[in-house]
Structure formats: C-alpha cells, structure tokens
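Next comes a concrete protein, fold included:
___
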Amino acid sequence: MLQAQQILHDRYQLIQLLGQVLGRQTWQAVDLHHTPPVPVIVKVMAFAEQSNWEPIKLFEREAKVLQHLQHPHIPHYQDFFSIEDHVFYFVMVQEFIAGTTLKDLLNQGHRFSQEQLDQIATEVLEILIYLHELHPPVFHRDIKPSNLIWGEDQHVYLIDFGAVQDKAATEGVTFTVVGTYGYAPIEQFGGRTVPSSDLYALGATLIHLATGVSPAHLPQKQLCIQFADKTKLSANRVKWLEKLTAPDMARRFSNARDALGSLEMIQESSEYSLTVPQHLRLSQPDTNQSSVNGKNPVIATVVINVIGLGSVVWLVFYPTSFPITPPPIKEGTSSVQELETPLPSPNVSPSPERVHGCRALIYPGSVLFNIHTWSDNPTVVWRYLLQVKTVSGNKWSGTFGDGLPVYGTIDDSQFTMKRDTWNQEWSGTCSDDDITGTMSSPVASPTGKFSFQRTN
C-alpha cells in the first residue's frame, strides 16, 4: 500500500492522494531532482497475477501516447517505470497543472457564463484539432468536466488520457467499451470511435456546464438531450450544441475544425449585431440645451428631393434613443441565421412513408440504440447499436453491438432477433418509436429485458 511521503524510484515523493479506482491511484507528488522540488502528478496501476490485462494495456497506451504529444494545454509526459512494494506497480509521471477541474467548480455551485462557455469550447476544440490531425489521429474518448482543468492562468487543460485511442491500434483487434455514460456517444458503446465522438462528449460537457445538470439526468427525445429550456444561451449557441450532440454521427460536425469555425461565426454575428460603428452612432444631446416637458430634445432631418417640376419634403422626427439600423450583413448572406452551418441530412436511407410499428423502425440503413438489463443483475446495463442492412418481406438482417451478424423477422407489431454466436434470441413488440421485450441466452444469462430506440 503506497503512503504519503513515500519516495518512488529515488525521485518522486508522494504528497497527497487525489483519487483511486479499481487498482489505480493518482497522487500529487514532487520531483526531488529539482531545487526546489517541482510538483508533478504520479499515476499508479497495481498489478497482481489475477488482474485483468485490459486496464494494464490502457495504462501503457496512455503513457505511450502522452510521450509523443506536445501541446501547451495537455500535461507533458515525464517518466514511466515499474516498482515492487508487496504488489507490482506500473508508474507514470506527468506535468502538474495548477487549477481546478470543471467538476469541482460545478460542485462548488459555479455557474458558467456564455463567454466562459465560449472560451472552454474554443480551447478544447483547438486541442481536439491538434489530436485529431495527428498521424495517426488520437481520440481522447472520455471528455467530461472532471477531465478538464480551469488553470490558474485562466486557460483550459485536457487531462486523463486513460481511455485514449490511436487509430493505428484499432485495426483488427477486439475493442473495450470506454467512456462515461451521459458524455460518451452511442457509437462508443459499439466499440467505434470517430472524430465527432469527442465532439459529442465536449457538447455534453458544455450542456452540463450551462445547465448545472449532468446530461445523464436530463430528459431525452429520440436520444437527443433536451436542455434548451434550462439555459440562457443564445438560440444560435443552442443549435450549435444540438448539432454537437446529435445521436446520429451524420448530423454532427464531422471534425473539430468545422465545429470551431461555426462557433467563431456565431460569435462574430453576435458582436456584429450589437456593435454600431463609431461613424454611425448618434451624438449625445447637449445637456445645456433646454428640454420640452423634461424629455430629450427632438432631432429633425429635412431631405428635399426635386422630382420634375415639384418638390417633396421628407420630415423625420426621432428621439436620440431611437435604434440605429445595423450595417448590412456580410456579403453572401441574407440574415444572421444563415451564418450557421446548416445541418446535413443523415447518411442513411429514409424511413418508408406511412408505415407504423416494426416497419417504421426496421428498414435498410436504420440504426437503433439498444439498452439491455439482465434479470439476475438489473444493475448491469448493456448499450449497443443495431444496424439494419437488408429487409426482404418479413425477414431482415444486420449487425449488432460488436459487429456480429444478427437476423430476424418483423410484422406490423412483432419483432424477433437471433444471434447465433451466443445463442441469443430477442422477441418484442414495436411501437412507432421503440421496440421492447425480453431476450434469452443460455450462454450468458437466463433472461433479460431490452429496448431499441430509433436514432435516425
């Protein structure tokens, strides 16, 4: 058992335990090889003969990826070694960031302004642009308030790369479901990660900061987080967040650079509509002049246009508080609303018109999100994606969860699905929006309950 004041590797003295979970500890420590000692973060992974190798692989991957990252808002890798102290430990050392996590700020009752949310979004998107445009790209896969630090220098830092994935490491290998429920997009529960997966997690985090409520506790409609009525954000920013957190990947921004560009246009449009150029501003009334009935003096402008043989006199009267018409919208747009990037259509086949029940949900190209609980352990929840490939008459086929083939039958209200690999069978009843029922699996567990919900 590691203890405070203990020195590891004849160099790193442990000061304070910051957190621990499943054999993994995070310590604040100091590097004694510097004078005065320099604060560092020490992460420790305990290993025993009965340990699952997967956490060890993730820990080593985190160290390997961090070793090659060079970004001012990502903690720098410093050291990696192993020690033996009754238990065998892997140890990673990285830069200490002075500041407070956004989770701690939320717990302290802090409510983030629109300007602060813009700054957080901008700085995290700049980090994601760097990570996603590496070769191979790097995906964080666990962006959430506890993994973002508001530094004492008033900048945002992305920490804890324990769930990190580099694209090269994913080819032809089995996957491990990582991420945090409420922040992780549904495709991660199926083992798939793309650039927009990190964007979804960022959007869910911003929604938490804007509302003060975890996205896991907010209501949903067709898997879309319902938050607009709980914030004071501008309509354009709400739409931007809705696009970041669209359950269908095809409806999200495809990359961080596009998301940042759209946010910057929203910011520019907001400033543009609220700012009147100096040469168009009304001069303030002379306070030494007399007023009528205590009101500001009235300005009169006379414009005389000669038309043919006659003349027209145009008299315009207005008080000094009359709003000035803003300058024209930027060339190429007809309104402020057009400055936003339009939502692309989902890259799937549309649902057939005028159909109900199972056939409104099961059609070529449809994607459904599955939530499953076991009867013998209802606290365990599985979440997978069902992708329908073909439908012929009342028979259909597709892939489920980890990409294994499934098939089944449908009619207007009844649904069946089979997966031969695990000898699993599902049967349920369809509404226009979901499928609910039970499943059996002699291999895994006797029975369970499931629901499928549409995502497109």
In short: Residues 167-175, 272-352 have pLDDT under 50 and may be disordered. The chain has three domains: 7-95, 99-168+179-270, 357-454. The radius of gyration is 29 Å.
